[in-house]
Amino acid sequence: MPFNSIFAWIIKKRIHQIDLFKKYPLEVQQELFEKMIFSAQNTEWGKNFQFTSIRNYNDFRQNVPLQEYNDVQPFVDRLMEGEQNLLWPSDTKWFAKSSGTTAARSKFIPVTKESLEDCHYKGGKDLLAIYYNNHPNRKLYNGKHLIVGGSAQINHLSTDSYFGDLSAIIVKNLPWWAELRRTPAKEIALMSEWESKIERMAESTIHEDVLILAGVPSWTMVLANKILEITGKNNLKEVWPNLELFMHGGVSFDPYREQFKKLIPDDKMNYVETYNASEGFFGIQDQVNSNELLLMLDYGIYYEFIPMESFDGVNSTDVVNLAEVELGVNYALVISTNGGLWRYIIGDTVKFTSLLPFRFKITGRTKSYLNTFGEEVIVDNAEKAIAYASLKTNAQIREFTTCPVYMDGIDRGAHEWIIEFVNQPDDLNRFMVLLDEHLREINSDYDAKRYQNMVMDFPLVKVVPEGTFENWLKSIGKLGGQNKVPRLVNNRTILEQLLQIVESQKIQK
What we know:
The structure is a single chain. The chain is an alpha/beta fold. 39% of the residues lie in helices and 23% in strands. The protein has helices at residues 2-23, 25-39, 44-48, 57-63, 69-80, 113-134, 166-172, 176-179, 186-189, 194-205, 217-231, 236-239, 257-263, 379-393, 428-442, 444-450, 468-475, 493-508; strands at 92-98, 107-112, 144-148, 152-154, 162-164, 182-183, 210-215, 245-248, 270-277, 280-284, 293-295, 301-307, 320-321, 330-337, 344-355, 358-365, 369-370, 377-378, 396-405, 414-423, 460-463. α14 packs across α15. The longest helix has 22 residues, at 2-23. The protein is globular, with a radius of gyration of 23 Å.
């Protein structure tokens, strides 16, 4: 196929550029910083914060305050009503609807032509470039690429602006070379009613030669199970014998890894993780045998970091750029982008595993952690512990969330895990013992609170029936797309809602 030859040539050029920013990361970030400040100096934002007087990073840090969504929302609202040149000089007509965790209200992240082309699409091309570089002589363009994305809706505040899930915005605006091999058809891919969409996606792709899957693991599994239900096949390789790559992101893959091995029983199947949020494309797994992510430095994103030990939201004073980060420190991620976000606290936390090149792991959320008793459990801890317990007890997890059991008089506090299994563990008690023990091994604060059950008692578990989490998402209007179940919640609201779903399911039966 000519496309494979052309793509191989393009890849070699791009791999050279990636090698350059790996070798000269600080120089690339500095050049990008200067270009962004110059580009935005005549926007309303640039004038408000005196971009013309900014000469270096220290000036930038002093002139421009840290931002969260509430701070930037008035500008976003004006952009959605049609005003321009507020945050970024080019027109902003697209807005990525982002909810982070399902407990948060929706946010609308501005998406410019530059952020689409120089960030999101570039990230997609780089993902394939890195894959081809690691696996030479592949011919991915001989088959179809199936993207499990969200839906787009028209924003009625303006006839010329739109909002939807980022994945849908990407699909709606794909360049011809990407659209050529994508499946299913756009009218199906952009359907807003998720249950009908899964059915249509399955029906329209079972006879295609799919080589690549891309999407959030949980929703990709829903599609995969529907395909197996329709075809009567035992696994996806029986449906798509040439399937070789799953590009995933959005949530940790650890709780899903064993399930995908059963869905796709092929030792030659490859899995590549990405860190692609509504706000930008930040990282790609560039090594075959490592789950570390390479920080992508030439996507129109300038990076800053706040050590979590001193994190205080927009009032944080200990903020560093890439030149000042250290290995093993848990940082809140701060970004300035060619989409018009400036010193924006995205809400995710990362930890660097290498400084040349800059590789990292996602550790959780700044606001998604359990710290009711001083245990400071982050999402990364919880996902590692539940993956470990699952492996040791032959369990498979579909979804889970965790909340506190509050201290009451002489009763100690605890964590309560609400789990929906695909396969129940051999022994549920042993599963919880292993989960608790592994959490104690990897988190000293949790271990201290669990010492002799003085502060925290042994964790509780509620096993809920199949479909509970999906029905809960549906009940709050968050089914499908990029919506995610919060892994850690510092109150019991979601637990009560889930139990109500369970009771209603019993009544219906």
